[in-house]
Amino acid sequence: MKKRWLSIVLAFSILFSMTGCALGGKEKGEYQVYYLNMDMTRIVAEEYDSQAKDSEELIVELLDKLASAPKSSKLRQTVPSNVEVEWYQLINSRLYINFTEKYKDLTPTEEVLIRAAIARTVLQVPGVALVEFQVKGEPLMTHDGTLVGSMTSDSFVENPGEQINSSVETSITLYFSNVDGTKLVKETRSVHYSTNISMEKLVLEQLIEGPKKSGAIATVPSGTKLISVSTVDGVCYVNFSDTFKNQGVVITEEILLYSIVNSLTELPGVAKVQLSINGDTKGSVKYSYDLSKMYERNFDLLPKK
To answer: Residue 292 in 3-state DSSP?
Structure first.
């Protein structure tokens, strides 16, 4: 590991110039390194006692920690072992981080969480106000071909996670199918739930459970397992088991899709939804709606009043 990061620093020193920024008297233990939880649903911070004397040393230290195992056995290292940082460069408070080609092999859920964890970590460095990711020298694009661009600490909204294990009551809005499978049926229900799960997970679990009102039928196939769900940068990434493909002929594809999308986008902070099956975004929801795309809410499928 030391040898790898020494090579990165040497390559950086040869190819680029960077003025180290003094850390302004910061004390040890004032930095947080963000890792991923084992369920790949959120990022979690661990305190780090830095030995760095300037911003350049701190960047190297933090990137090294992100590519190393965390202290807690309940967390996983942020940068996978098969992904490496080829170089980084700090220009006018904008930090460029360039990854090897293997970065493109990350699943959508992994990628957004890893990106959030790295950005949150390095944006603590004095003199770093923006972060931009690159892969083999090219600007990072999302799985649907959108340019990621510059990121700040406000670019990400991750799940609140398991902070207080208590039971509360809340009201959620779900969308099921009518009996013909051609229109959405809105249902608002009050549920008691444990605060150690995210609202996104609660909505999906209730959706899988099916409707409680007459005149509506379930959209998600029985037996479907929710592998993971995570919201980052306004996009909710949902990963179902392959049982999700066992869909009957009654419900149309768009009703199936938008029952999920509309239910999740009722939550604050969720603007778009992307589905995957066992982590794979290839193929379609059923016939023509690509899994690789992100979908916004669609209320045209509700019955006309």
So the answer is: coil
Domain limits, the chain: 2-139, 167-301
Instruction: Give CA torsion, residues 123, 124, 129, 131, to 10 deg.
Output: -20
- Measured in whole angstroms, the distance separating CA 152 from the mean position of its chain's CA atoms is 15
Residues 256 and 200 sit within 8 Å (Cβ to Cβ): no
Q: Mind listing the pLDDT tens digit for each residue in 184-240?
A: 999 999 987 766 678 898 999 999 999 998 999 999 988 899 988 888 888 999 999
Interatomic CA distance for residues 13 and 133, integer angstroms:
19
**120/9 Cα distance (integer angstroms):** 21
User: Residues of 258-296 as b/e, b for ≥16 C-beta within 10 angstroms?
Assistant: bbbbbbbbbbebbbbbbbbbebebeeebeeeeebbbbbe
For 87, the 3-state DSSP assignment is strand
Query: Model-level pTM?
Result: 0.56
Supply the DSSP string of 52-86, one letter for each residue: -SBHHHHHHHHHHHHTS--SSTTEE-SS-TT--EE
- Round to whole Å and give the CA distance between 118 and 155: 12
- Of the candidates 97, 89, 81, 87, the residue with the CA atom closest to the CA atom of residue 151: 97
Secondary structure element (H or E) that encloses residue 95, with its range: strand 94-99
The percent of residues above 90 in pLDDT, for the chain, comes to: 54
